[in-house]
Protein: Poly [ADP-ribose] polymerase
Amino acid sequence: MSSKSANYCFASRLKDIGLLLLSEVALGQCNELLEANPEAEGLLQGKHSTKGLGKMAPNPASSVTLNGSTVPLGPAHDTGILNPDGYTLNYNEFIVYNPNQVRMRYLLKVQFNFLQLW
Structure:
């Protein structure tokens, strides 16, 4: 599910190369929210991170564990999550507020494909 992060590369048809950083993140206990909230950090109440619940996510049944870390794999599936109060996130989003919870692992140089689909 890299499409959210890919938007921050600001790639275009003329500049189609971008960099994506793949990190190992210790989420701890997540505060789960149905929508974006700029004050989410203040809502942690003893939790270690925020998880925005999205409509689509990798199927947990396809995940593998490598060296104690859960790695989501496989195609996206419908999570059944809907926000009854309005907009629903397209994909799960995770936010950690303490940089010590993040271990940068891989810097990927990617070429974006801007072919028109219709």
Q: What stands out?
A: The longest strand covers residues 102-111.
